[in-house]
Amino acid sequence: MSPSAVVSLRLQLSLAQPVLRAATARMWQSGPGLPDRYRRYLRAMHQVIRASVPLMERAAARCEALPQDPVAEPLGRYLRAHAEEERGHDDWLLADAAATGTPPGELTDAVPAAHVAALVGAQYYWLEHGHPVALLGYIAVLEGNAPAPGLAGRLARETGLTRAAFETVRLHADLDDGHSADLDLLIDRLPLDTAQRTLVAVSALHTVASLAELFDRITQAPTEWESTHE
């Protein structure tokens, strides 16, 4: 008997995720550069997270255009509901940035770097030219790599920034475990064919690699980061 879709996906991710865990550890390493690294993290993640609801809404609309597809109806229902759960999370990041002394315009007006566009933009391609189920791979990685419990408190202590600057980190540490469990149930209930299972896996593995690259760029010195934004 072949493994379930979610078991297969989690197995493939388990082989790739050490790279992401290592990049995450480098980004959050203690030291005098941590406050500036955290500010760069807020800017980059705002650019990523502000796309979450539009991505899910577009994928849900694509599902509604596939009335004969047995995957589309339950997938679209999930995406519509999850979009409402995620709505406004980009505003949390703006509030956190303001608590660090960063004006919101530095996040909202910045030109997104190519590696951010590569992380998010691939999902638009796959949902338009493949199948909207691809987005589940992206969501599985983002929510399966929630901040560790206690990270917000450690960052506040080590950066000297106010605890109000770490609300998004704290809230996602609390919320994303439940979201991951719901997603796993959905993936196993969907009647995915072989091509759709492959697409979810390809999307997830791309997300792991792109997110690790993003975190490594955040870890770079400010001059290197700024040069990649130009």
Explain what the structure shows:
With 230 residues, this protein is mainly α. 76% of the residues lie in helices and 0% in strands. The chain has twelve helices and no strands. The protein has helices at 5-27, 34-49, 52-64, 72-86, 89-99, 105-108, 114-129, 135-144, 151-159, 167-189, 194-219, 222-229. The chain starts with a helix and ends with a helix.
Please estimate the helix content. Answer: over 70%
Shape: globular
The overall average pLDDT, rounded, is 91
Point out poorly predicted stretches. 223-230
Structural class: mainly alpha
How many β-strand stretches?
0
How far apart, in Å, are the first and last alpha carbons? 51 Å
Q: Multimeric state of these chains?
A: single chain
Give the helix tally: 12
Gyration radius, rounded? 18 Å
Instruction: Indicate the proportion of strand residues.
Output: under 5%
Query: Which H/E pattern describes the elements?
Result: HHHHHHHHHHHH
Largest sheet: none
In short:
The protein has 12 helices and no strands. It has 230 residues and is an all-alpha fold.
Helix-strand layout with pairing:
Elements: H1 5-27, H2 34-49, H3 52-64, H4 72-86, H5 89-99, H6 105-108, H7 114-129, H8 135-144, H9 151-159, H10 167-189, H11 194-219, H12 222-229
